[in-house]
Amino acid sequence: LSSLLLKRSKILNLTVNCPIGYYLNISKKECQECPKGFYQDSEAQTECKSCPLGMSTVGKRSQNSSDCKGS
Question: What is the C-alpha to C-alpha distance for residues 54 and 62, in angstroms, rounded to an integer?
């Protein structure tokens, strides 16, 4: 495993390692996929990044801003 996979985020005494394309849903205490129109290019995050206005991703679990395309 790469060293990036070993990164962890400690939130509310919960150690998690959500992969890219996912975020930690704090209330559910679990990793969830980024929805359409959002992406996450870093691990162990608590929210996904939104595509720029007028752009969206093709599907869920997008991992890079380059996945955001104009409609």
Answer: 17
SS3 track for 1-66? CCHHHHCCEEECCEEECCCCCEEEECCCCEEEECCCCEECCCCCCCCCEECCCCEECCCCCECCHH
Task: State how far the Cα of 57 lies from the Cα of 65, in Å rounded to an integer.
Answer: 9
The verdict on pTM exceeding 0.85 is: no
Question: Whole-angstrom Cα distance, residue 16 to residue 58?
Answer: 27
Q: Which residues of the chain have pLDDT under 50?
A: 1-12
